[in-house]
Amino acid sequence: MRNMKRKQQGVAGIIFVLLLLGMIGFLALATDGARALQTRARLDNASEVASIAVAALNDDNESTDGSGSAVNQTLVSNYAKAYVPDINNINSLKISKVDCSLDNSKCLDDFVDGYQYQINISTDQLSWFPGGDNQQGFGKTFTTASQAISQKVESPVDTVIVADFSGSMNNRPSSGGKAKYKQLQDVVQEVTDQLATQNANLADEYKNKIGLAVYNTATHSVPSDGQSYHSIVQTINNNGHPTSSHSNVDATNTIQHIFDVKNSSYEVSNSGGNFHDLQLTTDFNSFNSSLDSFYPSNGTASYQGIIRGAQLLNTGTLSRRLMIIISDGEDNYPSTTQNLVDNGMCDTIRDTLDSQTATVNGQPVETTLAFIGFDYDTSTNPALTQCVGKNNVYEAKDGQQMVNQILGIINEETGHLR
After folding, report:
1. pTM for the structure as a whole
2. Ranges of H-type helices in 213-316
3. Complete DSSP assignment for 13-40
């Protein structure tokens, strides 16, 4: 009897060991299986967010192999690695951009009013329990794939760049290269190249337009009763008269007449530099030809440029209006700027434009103000941050970063995602 009991215990031990091995194998499969499902969910989230980012960037997506541009490839790869940190390798990544307005395009839900962006991505992850000759497992790696689609409705925009052409723009940025004003000229050239591409498929009345309000301590504008450019101030004193003295600026009177194109009584002695306003236009070649001849001088009074920029933006015809303020430093008289902002200068610009309807389609106007600090800390200019709103403040260390920021701002305005 004792011998039989010992034999049964021995058999039970063997069975337990065999079951334990099976349970360990099952645990390995269950663990890596759950991880694979979690990885798929994370990759789905990454590809969805990345497709929205690609649509917002609106890069041309051109590549020799049809897999998508280097910019978009890097963007999507970074999102994938951020959402799935344990990616071992990105096996394949394809980004496609389709112009849904074309007759032969096949876009989701019969969408025809913009572009469709599709991401297909496949990744490898290392298994925690790869298995072996006598043990079940997922193998050394397992593969996860995902797809996402975003669509962007195209809506053109009237953009006015309010550009600082004070003497400090003659300096090179800390990143090196050309003088800041030269880099700004290159930036605007690249931005208008992108706008020209977008305009290619748009009717004339719906094309994107761009204008320029350039300033130092004054703007160089044509007075309402003149025919040639002069240094003009946009500010008024408490007696209702033009003033170039920052200490005499009356905020109430100045704001009340923001949208008035100033006459020759607002002329002041030449404020230096060589620049002038450029009206909203779709003739980007002439626009850039004029801009290339500009050079900066003198001090900084951003409120002069902002007010003149509002007047230019008021001539727009599209329902979306955008003002981008670019400066490389604080105003010479920041308290004057702050006082104007505190008394509603920027709110008045937005509210007045937003009360209008677009002449081309009768839609209500939507206005956005943005501020880009060129190679300086924007927190030192709280007035402009307050003017545009903290979510519309950017910092650019060099020209290429500014190009990306301006195109990002414009593309946010020229479309929305479905």
Report:
1. 0.71
2. 251-256, 284-291, 302-313
3. HHHHHHHHHHHHHHHHHHHHHHHHHHHH
